[in-house]
Design brief:
With about 425 residues, this protein is of the alpha+beta class. It contains 4 helices and 22 strands. It has helices at about 15-40, 110-170, 175-235, 355-360, and strands spanning about 40-45, 50-55, 55-60, 65-80, 85-90, 95, 100-105, 235, 240-245, 255, 260-275, 290-295, 295-310, 315-320, 335-340, 345-350, 365, 375-380, 380-385, 390-395, 400, 415.
């Protein structure tokens, strides 16, 4: 009987290799998932509950949705130029008025007293002017008489002096008589000059008095005319023809200067008034285009006027229809308007969605090409309109983004889509 031969066993049978490989793969997977979870927070979500949008490249038009009220193109506001108590009302709200029609009358007793006082003051000043003029005329007459007497005396003395000049040559009069005649003549010449200068100064003073009184009288007349105009303004009249839309006045009610009493609408056409968030004030310009739907058609408007005064963080603009006004437009209608903020430009576009409320447009979940998961990615949004965002960086056309709300996702880095 021969000895049995020992058979050597193979070191790595296929079964063992397969078993070890399975263990290695399992450990690797576990290790990968463990490490991944350390670095990336993940969340399983139902894909059917998400809105996934595709990033595109196309024309971008920035605009904002606003509401506007149709109002008459021209409106005139009735204001109380003078204060007073409502004394009479001639027109009721809702009636048609013509330019110049009296609408109501105010009464102001203080204004009546002021006019009476100004009239009395004017009468007194008028009398003063008349008396001053009369006095000046009398003084002029007195001056003329005084000057005539002086000239007469001077003329007589001149003849005497000239005759004595001839007589003294032949010693027919004494030297003393000659000198007396000469001195008297020279005195009268000097006196005439003094009186003329004195009269000139006195007349200039009296004329200045008259001019001052005349100016004062003219000023009083203007003040009285203004007071009488104020009295006339107590009757409030229609400055334009149209529809007396509103009238806020009751008999006996007191109105202060500047109070708005009513409104007249000129029914020759319409415009639209809209209030906008003051955030957009620097970006809205006269001439900006706007569109709105009405009666199944899209109509166009243009910004006509901007009122920069901000109230409650809003400012007001006027828009006018371009071309013919739409058929059926009437006062008081509310229009839903799309107002353009800039020119059309080529841009990378991302549809709007609920994600913006959570991220503020700073990041999004981008779906992998496999569709099995979505990764958080930082992006930058530049501008927006009610349909799309203009993406400045972070996304490329063709990529898919979850645009529905992220409210239930927390701050996960990755979403597993199931």
């Amino acid at each position: 009987m021969g000895m049995d031969r020992q058979i050597k066993k193979k070191k790595w049978p296929p079964r063992k290799i397969a078993g070890l490989a399975s263990i290695v793969i399992f450990v690797a997977v576990v290790l990968y998932l463990f490490l991944f979870k350390l670095n990336k927070s993940t969340l399983n979500v139902q894909k059917e509950r998400l809105t996934i949008s595709t990033v595109t490249r196309g024309p971008f038009q920035e605009f904002i949705p606003i509401q506007g009220e149709v109002v008459p193109r021209e409106q005139y506001f009735l204001t109380a130029e003078e204060g007073g108590r409502v004394d009479e009302i001639y027109m009721e709200a809702g009636t048609m008025v013509k330019i110049g029609d009296p609408i109501l009358k105010l009464d102001n007793s203080n204004l009546h007293l002021t006019i009476m006082w100004r009239e009395a003051e004017l009468f007194q000043q008028s009398n003063n002017l008349r008396n001053t003029r009369l006095s000046m005329e009398q003084y002029q007459l007195t001056l003329s008489q005084e000057m005539a007497n002086i000239e007469n005396q001077l003329q007589q003395q001149k003849r005497t002096y000239e005759r004595y000049q001839e007589l003294i040559k032949d010693d027919l009069i004494s030297q003393h008589e000659y000198e007396l005649a000469k001195d008297q003549y020279e005195y009268l010449v000097h006196r005439k000059e003094l009186v003329a200068e004195s009269q000139k100064i006195e007349m200039a003073f009296r004329k200045a008095q008259v001019i001052s009184l005349e100016e004062s009288l003219e000023r009083m007349q203007r003040n009285l005319a203004i007071a009488r105009q104020k009295l006339e303004n107590l009757t409030i009249r229609a400055k334009v023809s149209g529809h007396l839309t509103s009238l806020d006045a009751e008999i006996g009610q007191t109105k202060n200067p500047g109070d708005q009493i009513g409104q007249i609408d000129v029914l020759t056409g319409f415009k639209v008034k809209s209030q906008i968030d003051d955030l957009y004030l620097p970006r809205i310009e006269v001439g900006r285009q706007a569109t709105f739907p009405f009666a199944g058609e899209t109509h166009h408007m243009v910004v006509k006027k901007i009122y920069p005064e901000v109230r409650d963080q809003r400012f007001e603009i006027d828009l006018t229809f371009t071309g013919k006004e739409p058929e059926g437009i009437r006062r008081g209608l509310t229009l839903h308007i799309r107002l353009e903020l800039g020119d059309v430009s080529e841009a990378i576009l991302l549809p709007r969605g609920g994600f913006y409320q959570t991220t503020g447009g700073n990041w999004v979940y981008v779906v992998d090409e496999s569709g099995g998961f979505a990764i958080k990615r930082s992006i930058k949004i530049r501008r927006q309109n009610p349909q799309v965002f203009e993406v400045e960086s972070g996304l490329e056309p063709g990529e898919k983004v979850i645009t529905s709300s992220y409210e239930s996702f927390g701050d996960m880095d990755q979403l597993i889509l199931k």
